[in-house]
């Protein structure tokens, strides 16, 4: 099953940092989750830990990924 997992850090209107996650099967809109952090440092730490976990599970940057984008895909071979 081909899946995707997208993570990004976004500023909020109140000066906090949100960690945005979108995941699902390729070709779908997927599901989403937003976690808000009062500290940018903690948001970055959570981002990097999540990135490490997903890479350990076989997710890799997708074809349409830019250097600053964190969209990861998992192919059927990695399942």
Summary?
The protein is built from one helix and five strands; from the N terminus they run E-E-E-H-E-E. It is α+β, with helices and mostly antiparallel strands and 79 residues long. The protein has a single domain (3-69), classed as q64v53_bacfr protein fold (Single Sheet), CATH 2.20.140.
Q: How does this structure look, described?
A:
The protein is of the alpha+beta class. The chain has one domain: WGR domain (q64v53_bacfr protein fold, Single Sheet). It contains 1 helix and 5 strands; from the N terminus they run βββαββ. A hairpin with a 5-residue loop joins strand 1 and strand 2 (17-25). The longest helix is centred in the middle third of the chain and has 17 residues, at 40-56. The model has no long low-confidence stretch (mean pLDDT 84).
Largest sheet: 5 strands, antiparallel
Q: What is the count of DSSP helices, taking H or I runs of 4+ residues?
A: 1
Strand content: 35-45%
What is the CA-based Rg, rounded? Answer: 13 Å
What is the 3D shape? globular
Spatial arrangement of strands, main beta sheet: 3-2-1-5-4
Highest-level CATH class = Mainly Beta
- For this structure, the CATH topology is q64v53_bacfr protein fold
**In which range does the helix fraction lie?**
10-25%
Specify the CATH architecture: Single Sheet
